[in-house]
Every structure is written in C-alpha cells, then in structure tokens.
Specification:
The chain is an alpha/beta fold. It contains ten helices and 14 strands. The strands form two sheets. Strands 9-8-7-10-11-14-12-13 form an eight-stranded parallel sheet. The chain has a six-stranded mixed sheet with strand order 1-6-5-4-3-2.
C-alpha cells in the first residue's frame, strides 16, 4: 500500500489544483450537508483525538487526527495523524497519507475556492494574515497563487515568527511587513488561521467590500471574528449543518441574540454550482467561515492518490 508523506504530498498537488478537485466534486453532486459528523475524544493531558470518515465517488476514507496544544512547546507539530484511503466497493486499503500534511493542503484549498467566488472585484490590495504557523504559510501560498496581493501584513502573537513569515512573503516577491489588528481597516482580504479563542480584531474596521476568511477553529466556544462583523457580513460556510454544530464564530453571536441561523447567506456548494453569487449581498463584508470537513479530506486524498499514480506512470 503506497504511503504519501508530507514532502511528497507537497510535491504532488498545489492548493489551487486541490481547490479544482473540490469544485469538481461539488459540481458532480457531492452534498456536504450529508457528510458524517466529526467525532472528538478528549485525551488526558489536554489533547483531542478527532475521527473524520467520509465516502463518495467510489472511494471511502478516514482521518485520525490529534490536536495537541502543548506540542509546539515540545518542538512537535500541533496537528498529528494519518489518513487511510479505501476503495469504495471493496473497502480495500489504497493508500496511507500523512494526516497533518493533508490538513495543511486541504484547508488552504477550501479557502482558495471561496476566494475565487467571494473576493472583492478589481486588483488585489492588502492582505492581512493572522497567524504564523503551517496554516498561515499554506494560506499565503494559496492566496498568492489565486490573487497576489499588493501588500501583505502579518499579525501574530509571536513577533519573531511574524517577521519570519513576512520575510518568506518577501522572498516570494511580495511587499510584506508585520503589523497589528488595526491594519484590517485597509484590507481587501483578511485571513485568520490561528488557535485564538477570542476575536482577533474589531469587526467594525472591516471595509464594506472586504472578504474575511476564518479557518482556525471548529469548536462552538471558540472564535476568531466578533459579533459586529458577523452581524454586518454576508456569511458563507461549507455546510449549514456543520457550521451550526461547530462554528463558534457564528454560534456565539447567535447565543447573544445578535443573529439567527437564517443569517447564513449560502454555502460553498451554492457558490460553485451557481445558485448564488457574491453580488446578491452588496455593500457589506463577505465572511467565509470554515470548520474543516471530512468530505474535503476525502476529495483531496483521492486527488493526491491519482496524482501519485500518474506521477509513477511517467
């Protein structure tokens, strides 16, 4: 059985090609609303074990992921795990993938797909990127491939790591610097990929035509954006059912009585399949809230498996 490690995963598929695979699956009729729930088990010591199964299009798979908040202090990755890809009809194992590498690819791919439909029109201006971990690097690469910004501003708790990410952006030929949360006031795109449990910035600062992408949390009591932004924005999600179970960015404002479930403007599938478009909610920020779903892991794992086969054939 082939094993696809982190380095090979990065070589086989870009976030843009992974986004193409996600879009193709949605156009082919995959329904994220029917995706199985994520199972979570608290582990003694403060960690969490996640189990994410899915089946579609002749394949099945399951990701077993560990979230260990204490790992960075030990010099280890915060996200660990493996993904087992199976043939659908026989359930025979096809490949074993690095779960952390798969997550680091599929999450920016989902954001890249949302960016294609929700980014403000015209030339890309300022990107404000919250975070300095693997997801921040992955999202910077994905954004640059889709819509290179005129300026990149990195905001992170660790000033040294923020500076390293800004330097990485400059090596890619992008004007980049570190900044503060106040920089969202001049941003066209704000990307949040942190472990924050409280809002990162004042949502009232976000420009009416800007896009905010928040991917850092899948817990109902954690959020990266505030009630002011959620109240004013046109909100898009991967799945209404998943968002209303797991998206603290939406559930906390709802508990405060600020919004209701009907505040969600649409889903990624709605956008890709042309059922709605960005222009239907003009004059307000666009917010895409992602919690990460098992169908996305499966689609990207299949794309990686096929790319590995094609690569071997050549």
């Amino acid at each position: 059985m082939p094993q696809l490690g982190a380095e090979r995963t990065a070589r086989l598929l870009t976030p843009g090609r992974a986004a193409d695979a996600l879009a193709d699956a949605l156009r082919a009729g995959l329904d994220p609303e029917g995706c199985p729930r994520r199972s979570a088990l608290r582990v003694p010591g403060g960690g969490e074990l996640l189990l994410m199964p899915a089946a579609s299009g002749g394949y099945a798979g399951v990701k077993i992921a560990g979230v260990a908040p204490g790992n960075p202090a030990r010099g280890l990755p915060r996200i660990t795990g493996s993904y087992l890809l199976l043939d659908g009809p026989t359930l025979s194992p096809l490949a074993l993938l690095d779960g952390a590498a798969l997550t680091a690819l599929r999450t920016p791919a989902v954001s890249a797909l949302a960016l294609r439909y929700l980014a403000p029109p015209g030339p890309a201006g300022r990107l404000v990127l919250f975070g300095s971990g693997p997801q921040a690097y992955g999202h910077l690469d994905a954004v640059c491939a889709e819509r290179p910004p005129a300026e990149t501003v990195v905001v992170a708790r660790d000033a040294g790591r923020a500076g390293e990410l800004a330097a990485y952006a400059r090596r890619r030929g992008l004007p980049a610097r570190t900044g503060t949360a106040a920089d969202v006031a001049g941003a066209d795109l704000v990307v949040c990929c942190t472990t924050a449990r409280e809002p990162l910035f004042d949502g009232r600062l976000v420009a009416p035509d800007a896009l905010v992408v928040a991917v850092g949390s899948h817990e109902p009591d954690a959020r990266e954006t505030d009630t002011a932004l959620v109240r004013s924005a046109a909100v898009y999600v991967e799945s209404r059912a998943a968002a209303l179970r797991e998206a603290g960015d939406l559930l906390i404002p709802e508990a405060e009585g600020a919004i209701g479930a009907g505040h969600i403007s649409g889903t990624l599938s709605d956008l890709v399949r042309g059922r709605i478009s960005r222009g239907e909610r003009p004059g307000r920020p666009q917010l895409f809230k992602s919690v990460g779903m098992a169908w996305e892991d499966l689609v990207v794992a299949v794309a990686l498996f096929r790319a590995a086969g094609a690569n071997s054939a050549t």
